[in-house]
Amino acid sequence: MPDDAKAQLDALYKAPHPITVAKCLDHVDPHGRRFIELSPFATIATVGPDGQVDVSPRGGGPGFVRVSEDGRHLVMPDRPGNNRLDSLRNIAEGSGEVGLMFMIPGIDDIYRVNGPASLVVDDALAAQFTEFGKVPKTLLKIAVREAYLHCPKALMRADLWGDSHRVDRATLPTLTEMVADQVGVALPKVSRDQEVDGLKQTL
């Protein structure tokens, strides 16, 4: 990046509106709490010890991430995945910094939270996050440094919850077929319905 990159950016873009800056809080306020209570989906970005960044999806029933009473912390359960543990390893071995984006189907606004996270192993607390018949092995505790509502323009441009860009699943091969091609191995042929049924058994 050139030394004058900041000056170039400042020349290209207007300064943010004062409210855009002021809306960034150091805690989750009542509006943010309600947003998270309604959200069944979030993305989490983490940074590893080598500086590489990873972004991973997280989902559950609405409110699967919980906000502390004072709004200063979030607790997120870790659900069964592919066991690569990219996010968890980054948090354990890297800076611990995470960035979260919460979304609610049908609503274009996004709620964002940034701050340091730590891994928690607490059987009693984990039991409170039982979902899909499973108790999470670990929890993430995120200290809220920044929390704010994000402009809805990106989701509006994407029409994410609408039909204008909706794609029939049959347009793409099944996940199993695509992975088999990518890694060059023969995997058992399964239909899309069989694939979905198999995934549902491991939620």
What key attributes describe this structure?
8-stranded antiparallel sheet, Pnp Oxidase, Chain A, 203 residues, single chain, alpha+beta
Question: What features would you describe in this structure?
Answer:
The chain has helices at 5-12, 18-22, 30-38, 86-93, 123-127, 153-158, 175-183, 192-200, and strands spanning 41-47, 53-59, 66-67, 73-77, 97-104, 107-120, 139-143, 146-150. It has 203 residues and is α+β, with helices and mostly antiparallel strands. A hairpin with a 5-residue loop joins strand 1 (41-47) and strand 2 (53-59). The N and C termini lie far apart (43 Å). The model has no long low-confidence stretch (mean pLDDT 94).
Short structural description:
29% of the residues lie in helices and 26% in strands. It is an alpha+beta fold and 203 residues long. The protein is globular and about 55 Å long.
Average residue-wise pLDDT: 94
Report Rg: 20 Å
- From the spread of the alpha carbons, the general shape counts as globular
Can you count the helices? 8
Class from secondary-structure proportions: alpha+beta
Low-pLDDT stretches: none
* H/E element order: HHHEEEEHEEHEEHHH
What do we call the CATH homologous superfamily of the largest domain?
Answer: Electron Transport, Fmn-binding Protein, Chain A
Give the % helix: 25-40%
Query: Main beta sheet, described?
Result: 8 strands, antiparallel
CATH architectural label of the largest domain: Roll
* N- and C-termini, Cα separation: 43 Å
* Strand segment tally: 8
